[in-house]
Here is the input.
Amino acid sequence: MTIELDHTIIPCRNQVKSAQCLADLLGVPWADKSIGPFSPVYVNSELTLDFQSTDDDFPIYHVCFRVTEAEFDAILERIKASGTAYRSTLRGSVDRLFSTQFGGRMIYWNEPDGHQWELLTVSYARPSFYP
Here is the structure.
C-alpha cells in the first residue's frame, strides 16, 4: 500500500506572510488564498502546506524537506540572501553552517512564529525496510 501525505495545516499569526516567506525560500509556488481559510504553499505536486492564521496558542511544528544537492545549494543561497538565521544543529545556536553528520548536508531555521524547518540531502530517518 502506498500512503502519501497530501496536505497539513500550519497554524501561524499571519498566514500570508508565513506562506510567502517559506515559499520564497524554497522556491516553490504559493497563494495568498485558496479553498477555505488558508494560504497554501505547494511544496511539490503531492504536498501542500496550508498556513492558517490564528490568535490561539498553537504548538511549534518541525517539518523536514529532503532535496537534491543542487536544490540544497539554491535554497541555501536564498536563505543567505534573505538574511534568515540558520544553524547546523537541531537546537543549537545560529552558526550559519551546515551539518554533514549523516552523509549528506542539512540545516535548520525557524520562522517568526517558531516553527522549525529542516533541509537535508540524505534522509537519516528511513528504516532499512524502505528503499
